[in-house]
Amino acid sequence: MKIQFILIVLTLSWVNIEAEAGKFLSEKPNFLNPCSVRGAGFKNCFVNNMDGILNEWRTGVPGLDSIGAIDPMDINHISIDGDPQSPMGINLKLDDVKLSGISGARCSEASFSTDPLGMSALFDLSKITMKGEYNISGHILEMPLEGNGQAVISVDKIVVELKIRFIRRQEKDNLFLDVERLRLDIHELSGLNLKFDNLFNGNSAQSTAAHKVLNENSSTIFKVFRPSLNGAMGRLMKEYWSKIFAYIPATYAFSDLPSVNARRG
Q1: Would you call 84 exposed, middle or buried from its count of C-beta atoms within 10 A (0-12, 13-18, 19+)?
Q2: What secondary structure, in 3-state letters, does 109-161 show?
Q3: Exposed e or buried b per residue across 122-159, where buried means at least 16 C-beta atoms within 10 angstroms of its C-beta
Q4: Kindly report the CA angle at 123 between 257 and 78, in degrees rounded to 5?
Q5: Which residue from 174, 175, 181, 161 is spatially nearest to 118, judged by alpha carbons?
Q6: Rounded CA gap, 179 and 161, in Å?
Q7: Most buried in the list 32, 66, 84, 99, measured by CB within 10 Å?
Q8: CA–CA distance from 221 to each of 133, 140, 147, 179, 194 (Å)?
């Protein structure tokens, strides 16, 4: 009976995946324009496309139930494991994180590669906030850290680079560029502010001293946090942009794509 139940669940899941894969945007929205991947004007054209997607679809994508509002976005878990021999030996676990501010991202650079097939883009973001449950241990400089509760991590400005590798997919009369790989890298970050409730079990004096040291050393702390933030945000962005590009026929956003054999869907 248990095996039958598992098979039914797997079958239903596969049906849902197939139904989602069969969906596509049947009419090009006005904010999307086909950008020549070979022309000098690709940057300006595609910057407008990316900004249009983030702005026009910030509350969800019409006809695509698997994408909801872009603000806030949910991150299940972030783990930062500091080097115990480092002056910034911070071990931080974040759970049930709400990431806010992505809808305010603005694309500033964009380029396209035909071999390998892919693109890169720079995004400027301001007033990014992460809120969630935290557990912290370790030390900063010579000060020990200990606590758990609610955390608020905010950033005044951040510059993020996305590099995307595509695979062509032909669905009847429509060509799609599916995301094969996506890499996110935080290039710049400023105005980092950390707030941890219940540090040292609510000891006000110790908490105030720890927050002072943490926020005075925010640029160094960013270097500790950066790999984990790259990974968590990269996974989030891969899920988002994979669904977007799988839903939009490639000709809505790109023109004069190179003619090569496409993977059949």
Answers
A1: exposed
A2: EEEEEECCEEEEEEEEEEEEEEEEEEEEEEEECCEEEEEEEEEEEEEEEEEEE
A3: bbebeebebbbebebebbbeeeebebbeebebbbeebb
A4: 110
A5: 181
A6: 16
A7: 99
A8: 19, 9, 17, 32, 10
User: What distances in angstroms separate CA 232 from CA 55, 56, 92, 158, 189, one per listed residue?
Assistant: 22, 25, 14, 15, 16
Task: State which H helix or E strand residue 52 sits in.
Answer: helix 42-56
The tokens describing 260, both together, are 């090569």
Amino acid identity, position 193: N
Residue 131, beta-bridge partner list: 98, 152
- 13-67 confidence digits (pLDDT tens): 333 443 354 589 999 999 999 999 988 899 999 999 999 999 999 999 999 999 9
Contact in structure between 221 and 88 (CB atoms under 8 Å) = yes
Per the document, the length of the chain is 265
- Angle made by CA atoms 67, 160, 137, in degrees to the nearest 5: 90
The mean-pLDDT minimum among 39-48, 65-74, 256-265 falls in 256-265
Q: Are strands 143-171 and 263-264 parallel, antiparallel or unpaired?
A: parallel
d(CA 163, CA 234): 10
CB of 125 closer than 8 Å to CB of 140: no
The closest of 196, 210, 197, 192 to 88, measured between CA atoms, is 210
Residue type present at position 187: H
Residue 103 contacts residue 126 (beta carbons within 8 Å)? no
